[in-house]
Amino acid sequence: MKDKDHNKYDISYRQMITRMPKLYKFMSKYKWLILGLAFFDVISNLLITLPPLIIQYCVDEVIPLKDFSSMNIFFFVITMMYLVYSGLFLGHIYIRWYLQYNIRKDIREKLFNALLLKSPVFYAKRVSGEITSRMNNDVGSVSYLASDAFFDFFNAFLKVAFSLTMLVYLSWKITLAIVILILLQYFFVTIIMNFFKKYRKRTSEKWGRLLGYLQEVLSNIKIVMAFGNENYEASRHLRKSREYIKDSI
């Protein structure tokens, strides 16, 4: 039962697309801001892709003709592209920060309100530290998926699309070699991530138990001091911390 409950909170990048309908409930409130940010991404990737093509055209066509006026125009255009890209990049960072923290706030409010309606049996079967850990880590993970991870995925897709288009234009052989290398890298990274997945799950459980222990000791600190158990609790904390660190490494 415990593993089943934990799997509900075990969110990975691979599940982002399949869980998008659930994430959309938190993203829909900011849909126009998200669409604007997606438009920023398209323009930014276009601005960062065009300069190499313009430079290649200048080297192949303009410089041999010694057309300095055209070179100055192209230089001005490239400079303006990078300036616009810098402005879009700064705006992109601010909007993503705004989205992530507001989505996180919305998720925490809904989760806290849902926890208030749970029965005492629910809390009797769970350690308070585990609930706190999930409110902190899992809410952060979900808000990250609904904001930063979503745009990282979208931005990566745009970069791949624009880059492949430019590479195919320059040389289809180089493009084929790069695609093969990317697929091989994805294959090996997937194997490694699946191997470490079970350790990440165990580490999360250890962290929840450690938080539960800390809350238990701090809430009963007067009793601990009354019986002179400070050294005993310190050794327990050291042992639990070492277990957590050992599983984390």
Structural class: mainly alpha
**pLDDT average, as an integer?**
76
Task: Report on the biggest sheet.
Answer: none
Task: Give the CATH architecture of the domain at 2-170.
Answer: Up-down Bundle
Task: Describe the overall structure.
This protein has helices at 2-7, 20-27, 31-65, 68-116, 120-124, 128-170, 172-219, 221-226, 230-248. With 249 residues, the chain is mainly alpha-helical. It has a domain at 2-170: ABC transporter type 1, transmembrane domain (ABC transporter transmembrane region fold, Up-down Bundle), CATH 1.20.1560. It starts with a helix and ends with a helix. Residues 1-11 have low confidence and may be disordered.
Strands, helices and their partners?
Elements: H1 2-7, H2 20-27, H3 31-65, H4 68-116, H5 120-124, H6 128-170, H7 172-219, H8 221-226, H9 230-248
